Amino acid sequence: MTALPGPLRSMVFRNEDLPALFHHTDAIAIARQREAVNTTRGQLVLLVLGTVPAALPWHVRTGPVELLDAIGVLAYTGVLVTTFLASRRKAKSHWQLNRSAAEFIKSICWRYAVHGSPFDTAVPHPEAVFASRLEEGLQELRKVGWADPRDELDGSGDGLITESMRELRDKAFTVRKETYIRDRLIEQRRWYRRRLQVSRRGAFVWSSTIAALTAPALVLGVFQTFGAGRSFALTGTLSAAAAACLAWNEMRRHHPLISAHSLVETDLESMQAAMETTLTERQWPVAVFETERIVSPEHTDWLARHRM
Fold this sequence. Notes:
By secondary structure, the protein is mainly α. The chain has helices spanning 20-55, 67-89, 91-113, 126-143, 163-169, 173-225, 234-252, 254-276, 284-294, 297-306; strands at residues 2-3, 11-12, 61-62, 65-66.
């Protein structure tokens, strides 16, 4: 945490000021996300590659082996192997569980540091309440398969309330409000705005690619329908490639996330306006709690699933 000059010594609170448990789960989530995404990408590429030999008019034979067909065999074998390994490693499940854990830890640490509900100023023994609420939340994640890493961390997970969190909690309301708005709320708004732009670009690129692959397949199909040409094996490869692009686009959820990220960014904008103008110290704990609910992954996922 960095102190800024001023009569109230405004503070800067970053991810670096969060406990080691957050950084550990965040790192696992990033690694497992990368693994899950790369595995899916590899499977789709191999499935398309497997259709290519049948679409080519050439034959390359070495003894009893047709080399091009062998490429297809290897590609389909690769799909089966990666599918088996993915079912054993469960990268997607670990990614989602650790991401939920990391965001939960970050949220509860912010709420504690700035007196957000249920850690408002009037609560006696906020450290005990923090420990209890943290354990309750992590226990729910353990029930669905999250591997608690605290026994493996140095100090067995001690120090979940960092010195920076204590320092920010001891500041005046105006300092806590300024820090939260600047370093949490505005940072989250920027993140959702960036992700909105990424989703829009992704939706455009992959929708265009699907159309570009489907159009020639349609033309070749029309030719075959009216007997204007021979049978085109290439249509199978084009269809497989278009299906792979469609599956990738659905896996990345570009279209539903456009709407979800836009709604969250709008809600955060409204919350920021209220916090900077009409919000009183008495209303502050509930407002922080509501802001943390808005930025939670579960809320974004719900919007992505139900928003048309």
